[in-house]
Structures are given as C-alpha cells and as structure tokens.
Specification:
Layout (H helix, E strand, L loop, with lengths): L1 E6 L2 E6 L14 E8 L2 H20 L3 E8 L5 H5 L3 E2 L16 H9 L2 H21 L3 E8 L2 H11 L6
Parallel strand pairs: 3-4, 3-6, 4-5
Antiparallel strand pairs: 1-2
C-alpha cells in the first residue's frame, strides 16, 4: 500500500506496506512502531516523524500503536505529544554528552548507566517478543540518533533476541 501525503512542509511518500500486506484489508491489522532515540533533539525529530506516520496510517485505515524509548533523558517531547513511553528512563548527570568529557562518563557510570542500558535493552526485547506474538499485527523499529539507537533497533529487528 503506497500513498502520497502532502503536508505544509512539502510532499513526501510513505510506504505503508511494512504495516499491511498488499493483499490484505488494512482494518484487520494493527501496526506497532517502537521509536528508539538518544537525546532531546532526536526525540523532537522522532515526534515529527511519528506524527506523519500516524497521519498516514489513519488516512489508510490502519490502527497504529506508537511506543518510544528515549535512551537519554526522560522523553519530554514524547510525553508532551501523548506518545507511550517504554520504561525505564533516568536523567543522567551528563545529560547524554559523555563523548565530550570522560569525567561525565564516570559520573554517569556511578549514577547507574550500565544497569539502565541493560534494563532498556531488556525492555526492547520484551516489546519485540510481545509484538511478535500478536496475531494480525506487524511491527517496525525506528532509530533516531547515532549508533546506539541504531544498535538497539537492529537487535530488536533480529529474531535472535530470545534469551
């Protein structure tokens, strides 16, 4: 299912075939998207993308469930737009800027960065396994940011997630 969406910012194409098989009735399917991002700016960009995807899904009669996992910060941009947040989240001392100062990394490690990343990883695995088990449902993972959300998304897209 391919449709054209024109917004105030200009025209864009979204391919909704990842959601609905070409030979199926859209109303029989639920689409789920997990958006993984890593920073305030990335969260804001992700919200803009998700709004367009939600509009496109609505225009095509597809039920779309959106969940977000902000790897850095509390996900304020998502919360302001009523997007479901996947826990856990924690504000770190560095605010996500650990690559600019090693002392920031040490502060984040002391504040629980590694256990937080493990919990977030497990939350992604749980979300993926739940999505895989739902009949008449398709899911996708959207990564917004650098290599960290991309690695989480790649793992979530892999069938080798199960422990």
């Amino acid at each position: 299912m391919r449709s054209k969406n024109t917004s105030a910012e200009g025209a864009s194409d979204f391919d909704m075939s990842f959601v609905v098989p070409h030979d199926a009735a859209p109303e029989l399917f639920e689409a789920r998207i997990l958006c993984i991002s890593n920073g305030h700016g990335e969260d804001t960009i992700a919200v803009a993308i998700l709004k367009e995807l939600e509009k496109e899904a609505r225009d095509n009669g597809v039920s779309l469930q959106v969940t977000a996992l902000p790897l850095v910060g509390m996900g304020g941009a998502y919360a302001e737009n009523d997007i479901t947040l996947l826990a856990p989240r924690k504000k770190m001392p560095s605010g996500g800027f650990i690559n600019t100062d090693r002392s920031q990394l040490l502060r984040d490690l002391r504040a629980g960065l590694l256990p937080l990343l493990r919990q977030q990883w497990e939350a992604v695995i749980d979300w993926t396994q739940e999505a895989d088990s739902m009949p008449n449902s398709k899911h996708a993972v959207l990564a917004v940011g650098d290599v960290v959300p991309l690695a989480f998304a790649a793992a979530a897209s892999s069938k080798s997630l199960a422990p």
